[in-house]
Design goal:
The complex is a heterodimer of chains A (687) and B (125). With 687 residues, chain A is α/β, with parallel strands linked by helices. Chain A is built from 17 helices and 17 strands. Helix content of chain A is 55%, strand content 17%. The two termini of chain A are 96 Å apart.
């Protein structure tokens, strides 16, 4: 393991050294062994030859039992250092003559018995037996023993040489390998250095230097290519980052400016609305003040007319009629102005009911028959077979038709006026289309531009000739808008005119804004909600488009929606309809969302109603601190809103279940008394 | 002759209406404020009351409520007269206990019709 973690430099050196040393040692040792083996063989051959010579030389002495001669022959062996023992045996095995290099060896080292001719290695000694013969007759046996001194010496010398040789060549290998390993390790180490530099300094401009064109060279090439790629991307990234930063700053600036502009716009809008409201209130008051003297004018002139007629002064009757006429004209003007001011003040309510369309048409035609007859006009009615009933504000439908028909009669002389009613299907909705056509003086393109504007009679001369307030079409237009319908005119000067009004067959009140602000009309609304069993959500927002959107969305989720255009109305409605929950805007004129929230939470009867803040103001902490249940930032995430309202619906239905076990009679009454056990006083219903 | 109590603060209107009513053959008693109207309604026992709503001090609503709360005057039909002509006024009038309602300036023939209807209805009951 230590080996594996060594630096590549060491590893290379070590590998080279180990490999070369092992090869060297293996080859040297095998050579040594071979040499020693063959030397031993040589030694044994040499000893055998000596034994033959000595045997031959001592054969005569043995024949003649000349012991001293034999001993002398053997004594010649002193020249041979390695021969330690030489013995001549008689054929019966007894020693005849002997030679010992030292006396100590005798007689322990002698063989126990004689052998055939040959050699053997016995306990580190080389021993040779040689028959001694004369003319083929066996006269004795010669035994030689060598201590192989030469061989041992040779082996020792060789071993020494080998060790020195291995050491020297190892040293040399170390020198060479440590020089040569640089070929491989240097570029790798350089690569490593470069890499470290890049990663620690994040400097992608550094490049590794390529030394050779081998695999490492290619590795370095690859590394450099990679680096330049990274450098390019890094540069690109940095410049993009810079752009992004600049853009973000610009955007922030823009958002800030927009917010400011929005706030200013909002302020201006509120100021304008306030001014408009003030104007409407002024108009309403004025019209009231004007009615009182008018009452006297019309009343007295009527009275006078009757008295004059009684006394027979017919000539004065015409003049008195003119006074009456002028008074009534003034009254209709005041009524129209009042209507308009009510529309603008948002106080013009819709009282929806289902009615028979044909009956209304019939009534209107009967009412207008005298006006038509006055100019010699005939009135025709075209009623489609499949027109039955519609749900709308019947008074306003009457007034719309009255205005259009009386205009048609007024501006047509000895012609025809027709009214046709058709049901039509448009954008998956049912509509009722009313068309009033006349053959009168018509309307020029220029006159059409301002036709539906207040006080914009087609021509100043028309007022003189035909009378009228110039408000009829404006009011008609507003009424049609209130019921989410459309009105337009097709006409050319002198060619008659066709006014078309398209109203939904089922008009729906989408916000409470248009409802009149009094309690009496609200109570039935609340009880109808009880009948349908839908939970009520109160939407408080000054922006009509938000109210509209929220109402639509929540209605789709099967809630009954009541909307309030300002804080005060919201508080009043909260007490009235006891909603399941309230969605509350913050930025509102006069009484803002925080004030409303504070008032809701400090009223023991209202404190339990969950409030979801829905606003552009990003101050969730404050909202939650003040007791809001949830906080949504506009534009509203509809999915989240749906989840939240559903949660509250579930929470309420579970408390109703709990409450149903409590014997309070109001629990059974429906939403009016729910959710309140223990914490709220049961409501007393006003009837 | 049916007796009508007219409660109206505007002198001209009071004069005009009372004369026209007298002309139709009604006995007319007039009051110029709510308090006097209430007193006369109790003392004169009129057959019908025409009640202006915007009156100084005690307004028409208040007088109507008082009269309708009193067992001896409850049966007298009251027609409210208002110059406001707001939808809310109609509902307020019905809420307060008025039997009918008309706007000023008065359309005399329409008002006479309403008076007659209420007087007939009262007789029947």
């Amino acid at each position: 393991m230590i080996l594996q973690n060594l630096s590549i430099k060491r590893k290379l050196t070590l590998i080279t050294m180990l490999t070369s040393s092992i090869a060297l040692i293996l080859s040297s040792v095998s050579f040594l062994i071979y040499d020693l083996v063959s030397f031993r063989h040589l030694l044994s051959q040499d000893l055998m030859t000596q034994a033959e010579i000595i045997g031959y030389n001592s054969a005569g002495a043995m024949e003649f039992k000349d012991e001293p001669a034999a001993t002398a022959t053997l004594a010649a062996l002193t020249a041979k250092e390695d021969i330690v023992t030489a013995v001549l045996y008689k054929p019966d095995g007894k020693i005849f003559a002997h030679y010992f290099r030292s006396n100590t060896a005798f007689p322990g080292f002698l063989p126990s018995h004689l052998q055939e001719k040959g050699y053997r290695f016995e306990s580190g000694y080389l021993e040779v037996f040689q028959e001694v013969t004369i003319n083929g007759e066996h006269v004795g046996t010669l035994f030689l023993q060598s201590d192989m001194r030469q061989w041992s010496l040779r082996a020792k010398r060789y071993a020494n040489i080998l060790i020195i040789f291995v050491l020297v060549s190892g040293l040399f290998a170390l020198l060479v390998s440590s020089k040569l390993q640089g070929l491989i390790s240097k570029p790798i180490l350089h690569l490593e250095d470069t890499m470290r530099m890049v990663s620690s300094n994040k400097n992608y401009a550094v490049r590794a230097v390529k030394t050779y064109s081998d695999e490492i060279g290619r590795l370095i090439d690859g590394f450099n290519t990679m680096l330049s790629e990274i450098q390019q991307r890094d540069t690109a990234l940095q410049s993009t980052n810079g752009e992004l930063k600049t853009r973000t700053q610009e955007l922030e600036e823009e958002v800030f400016q927009r917010k400011q502009a929005q706030e200013e716009l909002l302020k201006a809008k509120h100021a304008a609305e306030e001014a408009n409201r003030a104007k409407s209130i002024f108009l309403a008051n004025m019209s009231h003040e004007l009615r009182t003297p008018l009452n006297a004018i019309i009343g007295y002139s009527e009275m006078l007319e009757e008295e004059t007629r009684d006394t027979g002064k017919i000539e004065n009757v015409q003049d008195l009629r003119k006074i009456q006429g002028a008074g009534k004209h003034l009254l209709s003007l005041i009524n129209d102005v009042l209507d308009l001011s009510k529309i603008e003040a948002g106080k013009m309510g819709l009282h929806l009911e289902t009615f028979d369309v044909s009956q209304v048409i019939e009534e209107m035609v009967t009412t207008l028959q005298p006006a038509a007859a006055k100019n010699g006009n005939s009135i025709q009615v075209h009623l489609a077979d499949n027109v039955n009933t519609m749900r709308a504000d019947v008074t306003k439908v009457r007034q719309i038709l009255f205005n259009l028909l009386s205009n048609a009669c007024k501006f047509t002389d000895h012609g025809s006026v027709s009214v046709s009613v058709d049901p039509i299907q448009l954008e998956n909705r049912e509509w009722i289309q009313f068309q009033v056509r006349d053959t009168g003086i018509g309307i020029s393109a220029k006159q059409k531009e301002n036709l539906f504007q207040e006080f914009a009679q087609a021509d100043a001369s028309i007022a003189r000739k035909y009378g009228g307030t110039g408000l009829g079409l404006a009011i008609t237009h507003r009424f049609v808008q209130l019921m989410k319908g459309q009105i337009w005119v097709e006409s050319e000067s002198g060619q008659g005119a066709t006014f078309t009004v398209r109203l939904p067959a089922q008009v729906v009140i989408e916000t409470a804004e248009s409802a009149p602000s009094n309690r009496a009309s609200k109570v039935p609304a609340a009880s109808s909600e009880t009948k349908t069993g839908l939970e009520t959500i109160l939407v408080i927002d000054d922006d009509p488009s938000v109210r509209d959107l929220m109402s639509r969305f929540l209605t789709k989720l099967d809630f009954h929606v009541v909307a309030a255009a300002n804080g005060e109305e919201g508080l009043r409605l909260a007490k009235q309809v006891d909603p399941l929950l309230i969605t509350l805007d913050v930025v509102m004129p006069d009484c803002d969302g925080w004030t409303v929230l504070n008032k809701l939470k400090s009223d023991s009867k209202l404190a339990e109603i969950p409030v979801i803040m829905v606003t552009v103001v990003d101050n969730e902490a404050m909202g939650l601190d003040m007791g809001a249940s949830n906080y949504l930032i506009k534009p509203v995430d509809r999915d989240r809103l749906a989840v939240l309202v559903e949660k509250h619906r579930v929470a309420r239905s579970s408390t109703i279940t709990d409450a149903s076990t409590v014997p309070f009679s109001y629990v059974a009454e429906g939403p009016a008394g729910r959710k309140t056990v223990g914490s709220r006083v049961p409501k007393t219903r006003r009837n | 002759m049916p007796k009508i109590l007219l409660v109206e603060d505007n002198e001209m209107n009071r004069d005009m209406l009372s004369r026209r009513l007298q002309k139709r053959g009604y006995t007319v008693v007039t009051a110029q404020d709510g308090e006097r109207g209430h007193t006369l309604a109790c003392s004169e026992a009129p057959d019908l009351i025409l009640m202006d709503i915007s009156l100084p001090a005690m307004d028409g609503w208040e007088v109507t409520r008082l009269l309708k709360a009193n067992a001896s005057t409850r049966h007298i039909p009251i027609i409210a007269l208002t110059a406001h002509a707001m939808v809310s006024d109609r509902e307020k009038a019905i809420d307060a206990g008025c039997d009918d309602y008309d706007t000023k300036p008065v359309d005399f023939s329409r008002l006479s019709e309403k008076i007659e209807n209420l007087l007939v209805a009262k007789k029947v009951s």
